Amino acid sequence: MRGTPHDSALAEVRFLTVAEVATLMRVSKMTVYRLVHSGDLAAVRVGRSFRVPEHAVHTYLQDALSKAA
């Protein structure tokens, strides 16, 4: 059975932990949690933790930079 194009795209998504996002953005983990809970940063809940798609971090930072300019 073959997967859909959507399945292959999902397989290529790289998920980051909150700690990894915090390190990447050079902010605290609490700041990342606030962004996730406010809906400003997309995330998926896995059990009791969150995973953030890497592209969501890049999108958030690009939007923040464009607003700052």
UniProtKB/TrEMBL annotation:
Matching Pfam families: HTH_17 (PF12728)
Location of the Helix-turn-helix domain: 15-62
GO molecular function: DNA binding
InterPro entries, per database record: DNA-bd_dom_put_sf, HTH_17, SinI_DNA-bd
Signal peptide range in chain numbering: none
UniProt superkingdom: Bacteria
Protein name from the UniProt record: Excisionase family DNA binding protein
Biological source species: Allocatelliglobosispora scoriae
